[in-house]
Amino acid sequence: MRRAGRVVTEMHERIREAIRPGVTTAALDAIGREVLARRGATSNFLGYHGYPAVICASPNEVIVHGIPGDRVLTEGDIVAIDCGAVVDGWHGDAAFTAPVGDVDDVARRLIETAEAALAAAIAQMAPGRRLGDVGHAVESVVEAAGLSVVREYTGHGIGRAMHEDPPVPNHGRPGSGIRLRPGNVLAIEPMVNAGSAETAVLDDGWSVVTADGSWSAHVEHTVAVTDEGPEILC
Ligand code: MF3
Ligand code: CO
Question: How far is the CA of 189 from the centre of ligand 2 (A)?
């Protein structure tokens, strides 16, 4: 899984450098394809229930699962980039949200809060902690910032498949849920909205948007529980 994680991390690095006003989301997908090919890795997104690309690119009010295309990113936008890779049958899956040029305070705070929520959740990835502690960490950070966290979509276990049990909700009760053990690997992925937490799906059957049109940030790491604590694989 570490090798798959390194490929996903390289996809992130290459795509992040390419994000600027004027670039299309399809061009970012092409970079993802190039990295996968160069590393001899395959895509876990392409063909997943018919999904047509190797990344998801979700601008502004799109929360997750935006399909790359000819949409041009413009100054002031934010865009969530979700990437996955498979190496020798092992999966990696991770996402970041980036500003496009200069962005306003709301956009900056969305990104910072999503990143802080993910960091707080990762800190819970130690033996003996429970799944509810992970979700609670996300929820606490987001609510303290006065933003809302999406509940209809969750993180997930990951390993020989991209989506394994258990689902990893972005909310929870401390001390509840399954106990984490060394060797568990979870993809933790908070989705943070500026307005309400409600979601809708566009006619393309994939793009998940905020119901109220407010902007949203999505970040994700694939994280292993080890005896020494959390290890971020990508
Ligand atoms: N990476 C997403 C997740 O975190 C899944 C992408 S859906 C796909 O679960 F269709 F694009 F693969
Ligand atoms: Co995921």
Answer: 6
